[in-house]
Amino acid sequence: MKVGLISDIHGNSPAFQAVLAALRNRVNSILFMGDLVGYYPFVNECAECWDADHIIGILGNHDQTLIDCLAEGKEPEQSYSARYGSALKRCLRQLSPQARALLGSWPQRLSLTLEDLSVAMFHGAPWMPLEGRVYPDFQGWERFQSCSEDVILLGHTHYPMVKECGGKLIINPGSVGQPRSRSGAAEYAILDVTNRSVIFERVPYDVSRVIQDARLHDPAMSYLVEVLSR
């Protein structure tokens, strides 16, 4: 059994579609570690190609911000937009019922069993599900021993990583929509459940639509373009 691992789409539907195409007919299901929204605005398009029968998702910190804004009937704080751009604010104004329902269906953490392998999903970390950051040079690996699961899946940092520690396999597949480790190609991973091995892959895609939107709506935030143009 093989499972696709994805995280941090961030409203980048061209990248998401490229990853779905790359995984098609290669995996039995896909696990998503959060952040469908934020940075880029094409969330409705992501929801349209979401296959709820084959993709299991959890919330990321940007997803939670959007849900909180919906619940309170307000836009994100100015400090949020100053740091991450206008995409979430624009997304709120045009969020489709399909996208709203999808985001509202996800928990902040999830445990599941794949064949005989127990798996825990977090966007951040077990001790801080939404905001914890575990980079490849993390020093506190013993903290993961508090998890009973065999495999612990993370997102949030946008850096791919695999670490074996105390009999546990800790994996971050990197970011679909805004990778920060090397090139702008969309990142994902494939977990072989039977032998507990993981491979990391990248797939190129046409970034022009995403870059054009960022330049139009957030011209002062050059990072939104630069991170996709490396």
Question: Topology, pairings included?
Answer:
Elements: E1 2-6, H1 13-23, E2 29-32, H2 43-48, E3 55-57, H3 61-72, H4 78-84, H5 87-94, H6 97-104, E4 109-114, E5 117-122, E6 151-153, E7 160-165, E8 168-173, E9 186-192, E10 197-203, H7 208-217, H8 223-226
Parallel strand pairs: 1-2, 2-3, 5-6, 6-8
Antiparallel strand pairs: 1-9, 4-5, 7-8, 9-10
Describe the model.
The protein has 230 residues and is an alpha/beta fold. The protein has a single domain (2-109, 172-226), classed as Metallo-dependent phosphatases (Purple Acid Phosphatase, chain A, domain 2, 4-Layer Sandwich), CATH 3.60.21. It has helices at 13-23, 43-48, 61-72, 78-84, 87-94, 97-104, 208-217, 223-226; strands at 2-6, 29-32, 55-57, 109-114, 117-122, 151-153, 160-165, 168-173, 186-192, 197-203. The strands form 2 sheets. The protein has a 5-stranded mixed β-sheet. Strand 9 (186-192) and strand 10 form a beta hairpin. The radius of gyration is 17 Å and the shape is globular. The termini are far apart. 41% of the residues are buried. The mean pLDDT is 96.
Please tag this protein with its features:
230 residues; alpha/beta; 10 strands
What is this structure, in a nutshell?
The chain is α/β, with parallel strands linked by helices and 230 residues long. It has helices at residues 13-23, 43-48, 61-72, 78-84, 87-94, 97-104, 208-217, 223-226, and strands spanning 2-6, 29-32, 55-57, 109-114, 117-122, 151-153, 160-165, 168-173, 186-192, 197-203. It has a single domain (2-109, 172-226), classed as Purple Acid Phosphatase, chain A, domain 2 (4-Layer Sandwich).
